[in-house]
């Protein structure tokens, strides 16, 4: 089963729709969002197509295929427009591998969670990459709406124990087996 993993939509209806479109294009059965869904955050500019209610409508239509991790810009009031729950952390068991999920405001490549398993996936920094730290595969999906440090808008595609980082045109940027 393919799982599309994205982060840091920051209220952009345009990029929320692109993520849903990518699910279809990639044949992904599930969508995992690693936080910062509706609000742009005080240090970020408004993204193109800023429309939190539009984002809610797009994501609420995916509720049966959606897991959402709470980011540092996500507030309790966001749940009032959401037909889904925000959770602080998550774990996937795919292809015999344990994959730990968190927004990235508490953990990062330089501060891995204890017992995170075979892989740790996060967002928060808006810079996509895939690297190994010891026996753990660490990946940041980047931001679909507000990339930073010269990186491209990006997402992760998990297919069994294979992880790919792609730009929004589906070009491969990096890949690794967990």
UniProtKB/TrEMBL annotation:
Cofactor dependency: a divalent metal cation
Uppermost EC category: hydrolase
Documented EC number(s): 3.1.4.-
Residue span(s) of domain Calcineurin-like phosphoesterase: 1-159
Family, per entry: Belongs to the metallophosphoesterase superfamily. YfcE family.
Organism from which the protein derives: Candidatus Borkfalkia faecavium
InterPro entries: Calcineurin-like_PHP_lpxH, Metallo-depent_PP-like, Phosphodiesterase_MJ0936/Vps29
Signal peptide extent: none
Name of the gene encoding the protein in the UniProt record: yfcE
Keyword Metal-binding included in the entry's annotation: yes
Protein name: Phosphoesterase
Top-level taxon in the UniProt lineage: Bacteria
Keywords carried by this UniProt record: Hydrolase, Metal-binding
One Pfam entry name: Metallophos_2
Single GO MF descriptor: metal ion binding
């Amino acid at each position: 089963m393919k799982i599309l993993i994205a982060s840091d939509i920051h209220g952009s209806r345009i990029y929320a729709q692109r993520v849903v479109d990518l699910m279809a294009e990639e044949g992904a059965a599930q969508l995992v969002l690693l936080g910062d869904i509706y609000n742009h955050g005080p240090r970020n500019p408004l993204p193109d197509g800023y429309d939190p209610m539009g984002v809610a409508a797009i994501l609420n239509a995916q509720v049966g295929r959606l897991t959402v991790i709470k980011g540092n810009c996500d507030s309790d009031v966001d749940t009032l427009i959401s037909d889904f729950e925000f959770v602080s952390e998550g774990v996937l068991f795919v292809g015999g591998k344990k994959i730990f999920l968190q927004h990235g405001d508490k953990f990062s490549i330089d501060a891995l969670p204890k017992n995170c398993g075979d892989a740790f996936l996060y967002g928060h920094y808006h810079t996509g990459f895939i690297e190994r730290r010891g026996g753990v595969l660490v990946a940041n999906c980047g931001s679909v709406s507000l990339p930073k440090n010269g990186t491209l808008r990006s997402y992760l595609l998990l297919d069994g124990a294979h992880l790919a980082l792609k730009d929004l045109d589906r070009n491969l940027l990096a890949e690794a087996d967990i």
